[in-house]
């Protein structure tokens, strides 16, 4: 795999995995600090996460074998890039585009343009902040390379190049300028929820958080149990207890969800988006138990049962439709339990 593709794949897959793990805390924090969350903001923060990993992977990977690499030098001439460009026989404008020195310069500019773009889009900061941040991040990368990842290697395994500082900083500046037109055309995209507002978007976002809670916590429990067997108990791979692993991956997150629903009337995902279940005609514990069974509990069980794919798909479709069409967007589970859903800030207000 080429040195260009491999870092990109690492950033995409690692960033996507990290985004899934951090999604629920991100949603909860956004609703508590900003009052809401837009799809554009989710995309922007996911892009920032992948981009941060791309900076790391492109500038520090691959790391060499500690015993078999040559020390890199230091390049402090700010005009060396122009000298490198002239050193190649261009043969005209077309050949200039294939000049390795030109391509390296353009790559350094393009690599930092997303930084300036995202700084304006996500944080509302202008050219000065974006340019300064571009310079700071680039300097941090170059110093990390110069010090051999802060002493992990006996010397630098990549060249410290002042031209990289210049082109990276220019890239951040250009990215910030590009974002000006984008922001003016699209607007902020934010539609903060206000107290008392229960929308289909919030209900669906809460459902996604509930699903991710099962996947992430169940996966973490399974991995932890397997690691405990392998490294603490010394169990060989062929002797792993997969029954306990499978039980943990399903029932641990479901039991936690059940406890939260019985105690508060809301699921973990609904709590993240500041929604609260309101007891109705049934006794509270009975209504909440029905709500769990007809909601995230039923989803979890169906997802674990082999051959239930069609039934699970129908369950998901009906639940999504109910989130849009039911009174007050209370959804299928709340409707069956005779409960309603309200904004958690309503009573406080």
From TrEMBL:
Domain VanZ-like: 49-181
Record's keyword annotation contains Transmembrane: yes
The entry's keywords: Membrane, Transmembrane, Transmembrane helix
InterPro entries on file: Teicoplanin_resist-assoc, VanZ-like
Membrane-traversing stretches: 6-30, 42-61, 101-123, 135-153, 165-183, 204-228, 248-273
PANTHER family: INTEGRAL MEMBRANE PROTEIN, MEMBRANE PROTEIN-RELATED
Protein name: VanZ-like domain-containing protein
């Amino acid at each position: 795999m080429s040195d260009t593709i491999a870092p990109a794949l690492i950033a995409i897959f690692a960033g996507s995995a990290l985004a899934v793990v951090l999604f629920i805390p991100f949603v909860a924090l956004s609703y508590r600090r900003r009052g809401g969350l837009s799809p554009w903001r989710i995309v922007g923060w996911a892009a920032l996460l992948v981009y941060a990993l791309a900076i790391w992977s492109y500038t520090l990977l691959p790391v060499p074998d500690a015993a078999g690499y040559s020390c890199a030098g230091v390049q402090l001439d700010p005009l060396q890039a122009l000298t490198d460009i002239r050193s190649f026989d261009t043969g005209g404008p077309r050949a200039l585009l294939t000049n390795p020195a030109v391509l390296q310069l353009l790559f350094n500019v393009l690599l930092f343009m997303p930084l300036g773009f995202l700084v304006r889009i996500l944080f509302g900061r202008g050219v000065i902040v974006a340019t300064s941040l571009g310079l700071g991040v680039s300097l941090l990368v170059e110093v990390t390379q110069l010090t051999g990842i802060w002493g992990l290697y006996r010397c630098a395994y990549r060249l410290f190049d002042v031209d990289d500082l210049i082109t990276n900083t220019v890239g951040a500046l250009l990215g910030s300028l590009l974002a000006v037109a984008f922001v003016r055309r699209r607007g902020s995209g934010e539609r903060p929820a206000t107290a008392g507002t229960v929308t289909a978007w919030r209900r669906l976002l809460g459902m996604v958080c509930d699903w991710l809670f099962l996947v992430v916590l169940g996966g973490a429990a399974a991995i932890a149990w397997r690691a405990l067997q392998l490294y603490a108990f010394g169990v060989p791979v062929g002797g792993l207890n997969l029954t306990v692993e499978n039980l943990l991956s399903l029932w641990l997150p479901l039991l936690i969800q059940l406890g939260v629903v019985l105690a508060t009337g809301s699921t973990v995902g609904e709590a993240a988006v500041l929604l609260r279940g309101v007891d109705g005609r049934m006794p509270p514990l009975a209504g909440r138990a029905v709500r769990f069974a007809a909601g995230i509990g039923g989803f979890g069980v169906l997802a674990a049962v082999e051959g239930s794919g069609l039934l699970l798909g129908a369950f998901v479709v009906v639940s999504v439709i109910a989130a849009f069409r039911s009174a007050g967007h209370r959804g299928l589970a709340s409707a069956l339990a005779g409960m309603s859903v309200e904004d958690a800030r309503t009573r406080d207000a």
